[in-house]
# Entry
Amino acid sequence: MNVIGVIPARYSSTRFNGKVLADLLGKTMLEHVWGRARESRLLDDLIIACDDEKVAEIASEFGAKTIMTAKAHASGTDRISEIINPLDVKIVINIQADEPLIHPTMIDSVAQALLDDRTLSMATLMRRIEDPHLINDPHLVKVVVDKNNFALYFSRAPFPFLAPNSEVKEPIYYKHIGLYGYTKDFLFIYKNLPVSKLEGIEKLEQLRVLEEGYRIKVIETKYDTIGVDTPEDLEKVKQYLASQKG
# Structure
């Protein structure tokens, strides 16, 4: 296989327990994510990596391919690594189970970048921030890239900082969208990297990659998502989907 998509679906969540099975207009949030991911043109297979029998049972009912993983994994990356290890695959796409608005083109953009350039080890997405009020939101991760669209840094802070004497009056800010693609080989390198100082400060796992000297390609997308961390976030998604139907 060239490309496989994996949705790590952990049942327990500190801020919103059982959120992957939360009802979203008659379907679980997980089914929305899976259904959108299935529309990808480049995925040769799609697996939901479960840590709870309840999640696996419901996912199987709506037709998903599931694999049970250990409950003790600290991250989705660890969960993915467990199921990918025995598989013959070149590229792995990590699809977040709490991003019900994910667009299949976003998955394909990341996959295509890794297929086209075999020197790449890891890729992710960014989208231009249009609402200036979001720039200061610490829950919205920002990214700055170099001229070749490799990540220079990710932060919860508003950056780049606009100096008072700057000649640039309206800098462009980019939101990081947490969909990741890796080569299978790099996935295991990433999994074994130590927690970095910057990661400990910002609480952003991808910073360990940059701090160890590896590069992350960042592809700009026109599509946006709403990550669901709380019941309030889920209501925002419901309102958005309802408005699209109307």
